Amino acid sequence: MESSSQRGEFDYLFKLLLIGDSGVGKSTLLLSFTSNTFEDLSPTIGVDFKVKHVTVKGKKLKLAIWDTAGQERFRTLTSSYYRGAQGIIMVYDVTRRETFTNLSDIWAKEIDLYSTNLDCIKMLVGNKVDRESERIVSKKEGIDFAREYGCLFLECSAKTRENVEQCFEELVLKILETPSLLAEGSAGVKNNIFKEKPPQSDASTSRCCSW
Ligand SMILES: Nc1nc2c(ncn2[C@@H]2O[C@H](COP(=O)(O)OP(=O)(O)OP(=O)(O)O)[C@@H](O)[C@H]2O)c(=O)[nH]1
Ligand SMILES: [Mg+2]
Fold first, then answer.
1. C-beta of 46 in contact with ligand 1 (< 6 A)
2. What gap in Å lies between CA 52 and CA 55, rounded to an integer?
3. pTM of the predicted model, to two decimals?
4. In UniProt terms, what function does this protein have (predicted)?
5. Which of 92, 96, 180, 193 has a Cα-to-Cα distance from 142 of 20 to 30 A?
6. Taking 60 as the threshold, does the pLDDT of residue 66 lie above it?
7. R_g of the chain, CA atoms, integer Å
């Protein structure tokens, strides 16, 4: 996967959503992904939004990433942003047990209630692995949860950027493999999607994607 500089043209537009308890690092993860920087951010008020253009498997993608507030007082507002998302990233903090238990108590239920897309790809992300000595939630617990709820799974650190790109990369790759989501992602991009693309000369040697 690589960042694309051609901002005007893209083959698919994907809507991604970040959800999870307040303070787990959703906004930091997004900032780390889009700007390669780490800042001590304030809690999100309502909903935030960033766009990133990437190229994956020769396809130019426009990722519209919605970053929701984890605080309960914003729940009514944020619920309306699940509509039409092709990918949802559920984030918890590996150093705070309640952010993990709230995945099943709150966040998975929110997805069931508000996601309009049956084939929507879910990714579970355990953040803050740089604080290994304070870890409370084991990697195995994350894997087991992801298996039970049919999610992809990764642990990452928005601070050190460990696995940050992979979180988005694996999600996007899975969306690209899902025909119904692809069909949706190409709606509104009519002028680009029907163009035949020449085969990529290095496709057999390169990995599927790089940033
Ligand atoms: N050590 C460490 N701190 C992190 C990491 N990611 C985020 N933080 C810190 O955790 C705090 C909360 O991060 P945010 O990104 O604001 O959390 P959020 O999930 O967006 O919170 P809401 O917007 O309230 O829902 C901030 O002080 C961040 O600096 C990480 O990977 N490692
Ligand atoms: Mg935030």
1. no
2. 10
3. 0.88
4. Intracellular vesicle trafficking and protein transport.
5. 180
6. yes
7. 17
